[in-house]
Amino acid sequence: MFDFEEELKKLPNAPGVYLMHDAADTIIYVGKAVNLHNRVRSYFRKIVGRGPQIDKMVRQIARFEYIVTDSELEALVLENNLIKEYSPKYNTMLKDDKTYPYIKVTMGEEYPRILFSREMKKDRSKYFGPYTSAAAVKDTIDLMNKLYQLRTCNRRLPRDIGLERPCLNYHIKQCAAPCQDYISKEEYRARVEQALDFLNGNYRPILRDLEEKMTQASDNMEFEEAIRYRDLYNSVKSVAQKQKITDSDGEDKDILALAKDETDAVVQVFFVRDGKLIGREHFYMTHTQGFDASQILLDFVKQFYAGTPFIPREIMLQEEIADTEILEKWLGVRKGGRVYIRVPKKGTKEKLVELAAQNAQLVLSQDKERIKREEGRTIGAVKEIAALLDLEHISRMEAYDISNISGFANVGSMVVFEKGKAKRSDYRKFRIQSVSGPDDYACMKEVLTRRFLHGMEEKEELDRKQIDHEFGSFTKFPDLLLMDGGKGQVNIALQVLEELRLDIPVCGMVKDDNHRTRGLYYRNVEIPIDTRSEGFKLITRIQDEAHRFAIEYHRSLRSKAQVKSVLDEIPGVGPARRKALMKHFGSIHEIQEASVEKLCEVQEIPEHIAVQIHDYFEAQKRGE
What we know:
By secondary structure, the protein is of the alpha+beta class. The chain contains 20 helices and 21 strands.
């Protein structure tokens, strides 16, 4: 038994991190302290106005532990790491785990390349970014290589110069082929410097150069070249126009602002690099109830900058936060230079913070509306169905369908929807074992029997081992069983459930003459349903999904059977060669039409096997 009085007395007067555990020994809160003795004891004093969220957390504490550190800075770093590792229930958490793309110029290589990168390493390369759009980064890199014809290959130069032929990029004028020594090292480096100048925002020289080349090519009636230069000119101009100037000091800064309501919080970040606004992003914070804006911003700053590789020189906030001095020190260590956290009070910077706050509020309100609409399509639709069938509660629905062609490869599908959303991890496919002909009722009986028997056996096994049922794939039974048909399919399901002594509501999805859902068959009655309602739309989505899943499975089996039946009859063609042939030719028809020489192009097919394959199909064509 944890003795709080005794353990509180032992707390040291030192900086560190404390961890609160509940009765199940789960870590529910992680915090840092300049003085562990004072900070941890404060939780267990009768303080009015501490907030309902903290009071609720304190009531759940069964024990605490702590880790002493040498400094408050060490405590800050450790707190971040532990929050990331344990995701405690009562810590304000940064919901998004995004990594931002960079443009990397490999200056450590003798012939540098311009690459896409998700991380910023301490190497000899130069990095530009971070950017908020991966597509924009790739487009810019593509433009760079077209403009300056820099290499994109992994060849080690100058060691590999002349060893291989130039690649396609050389022939389409997107690489100057340093691998063939077609360009001097000095000229190549000059182009790299021009590319760096471009990435730093100096577009005028390249625009002037492209305009001159376009005019010259046009005057020489080299219209294809003129069009190429025109397209490059327009691409550069497009990139240049996207760079919105926000400040004249050319500094790197992030601008942060928060919008919150009773349940949610959104932080908007504007990224300014070299005085240009290169993008913006919003982040959701969870577990924010009971915390004020200052505390949420503080938690965001700690968690966000612990995970991003780029630290700007200045971070501008809409209001003051605690621990500013220690945060600046920590960020400065990570950056390798001085970092300032400021709250602007006037001028352009204050307007930028206000703009960020307006954007955060807009995201929050728009998402509330989106979530409300989404809930109407999902949870609201489920409630409609429950009311229609007079059921108290529905969460999980399972739907089944059978697919075959004249009794060939009978298969069954099981799709699962929880709270109105597809739960694809719980989908299951069944290959019918006991039915050989086209008997959908018998197939459905086998599928349902196997599904529920398997679930009951899994439950028994997990109970025996005292393991939670959530670990079993079939143990969670539905609140409603949906059958792809009317009375007949429903009766089959009810028969199976009765034999297994299970009490689960069963509903049929009745179709009209055009194979569209017209109503629900439940308790021997066909219930009409409003075709404009969200409940009807959800039923239709579930029915379509069950049908699609069954058809896809059946199609894959037919495809495998077709490949196997033809190629496996040829002596010397086993699974590996069959796979190689299909990968190379793409279809049985292409293999049938291939010459011996074409068949030999497949690495796994020796000449004598190629002859056998060719002769086999030729004999088939002659009807032998």
